[in-house]
Design a protein that fits this description.
Elements (H helix, E strand, L loop, with lengths): L3 E6 L5 H6 L4 E6 L4 H11 L20 E4 L15 H4 L5 H11 L3 E7 L9 H12 L2 E9 L10 E9 L33 H8 L8 E3 L23 E3 L11 H8 L11 H10 L3 H30 L1
């Protein structure tokens, strides 16, 4: 059976690709405009992604079976001013997903975004997205999945969109994960140097109020970490998770801990600064979540491909 070909849009450092690819798939195109993310992508996949997708013609993208994209969330403020949902996406980066799907008509797609997209612009954004995907000829659905249900020690809720061409007649069921949660203590390192938070910053900012913030964890913690965000290096007291360890008694999460929180392999190469490392991993996806969804998608597509092959053989006979 031929390999499933996919493209990787708004690729970041390749998190969705990492969760999707296996020996039976082939990435035929990738796109990412950020130069630091390109550097990390190249270090791990041996290719430099193409740049700004808005400047790339759909006809210049290779034919593919599946489109993958962690597209940025933007409000679609022009809804109601243009005819049709596809037209209503113009001026947003989601429009580039639409035009590529429209031109190539791949069998399926997998998209990822933050949960805020569901309420953005009073619910109009998600209305436009689902309407456009329907107009393009796809049975599309979405589900909020939490990384904590897929073996990771992090609470991270993200929206996953999956779609198949209507002619394939697919009723996609999302994986549900497990109720068993991995505690943050399972992935912590101790005696780590270089990630310390100064005592002055702790006293003047982090613990200036006695309100249970920020989240501080140690080897006995049974909770999951807060969502790792791109601005984690800014040491935010409301959203951050910090470790009771190091020379000052409190430190940031280490590189290995961040990799584990997102399900990346520890040999994943991060050839950029620590600030960029936090930004890139905070902007990326949780690998086990993508893999669980991708495995279901690939199973369906291979079954459909096998059905087509059998039909072709029957016609030849």
């Amino acid at each position: 059976m031929n390999k499933l070909k996919f493209i990787d849009l708004f690729a970041g450092i390749g998190g969705i690709r990492l969760g999707f690819q296996d020996k039976n798939t082939e990435c035929v195109f990738s796109s990412e405009w950020d130069k630091f993310s390109q550097k990390t992508y190249e270090a791990n996949f041996g290719e430099i992604p193409h740049g700004d997708i808005t400047q790339i013609e759909a006809k210049d993208i290779p034919q593919h079976d599946i489109l993958l994209a962690g597209f940025p969330c933007q409000p679609f403020s022009k809804i109601g001013k243009r005819e049709g949902f596809k037209n209503a996406t113009q001026g947003t980066l989601f429009f580039d997903v639409v035009r590529i799907l429209d031109y190539h008509k791949p069998s399926a797609f997998l998209l990822e975004n933050v949960t805020g997209i569901l309420s953005d612009d009073g619910g109009k954004t998600i209305q436009v997205i689902m309407g456009a995907l329907d107009e393009l000829g796809y049975d599309a659905s979405y589900e909020i999945l939490n990384s904590a249900a897929f073996g990771l020690a992090q609470n991270r809720r993200r929206v996953i969109f999956v779609g198949f061409l209507k002619e394939l007649n697919v009723d996609f069921q999302y994986p549900v994960g497990s109720e068993k949660k991995v505690p943050i203590s399972d992935i912590l390192e101790f005696g780590v140097e270089g990630y310390g938070i100064s005592e002055h910053l702790q006293q003047a900012y982090l613990f200036k109020k006695d309100d249970g913030k920020p989240q501080v964890v140690d080897r006995n913690s049974t909770v999951q970490a807060n969502t790792l965000v791109a601005s984690y290096h800014k040491i935010q007291r409301i959203t951050g998770t910090f470790v009771k360890d190091g020379s000052t008694g409190l430190r940031l999460l280490s590189k290995n801990e961040c990799l584990k929180l997102q399900g990346f392999p520890l040999d994943f190469i991060i050839p950029v600064s620590r600030t960029q490392m936090y930004r890139q991993l905070g902007n990326s996806v949780s690998i086990p979540v993508v893999k669980a969804v991708a495995d279901e998608m690939k199973k369906i597509l291979r079954e459909k491909m096998k059905e087509c092959e059998n039909q072709q053989l029957a016609l030849q006979i």
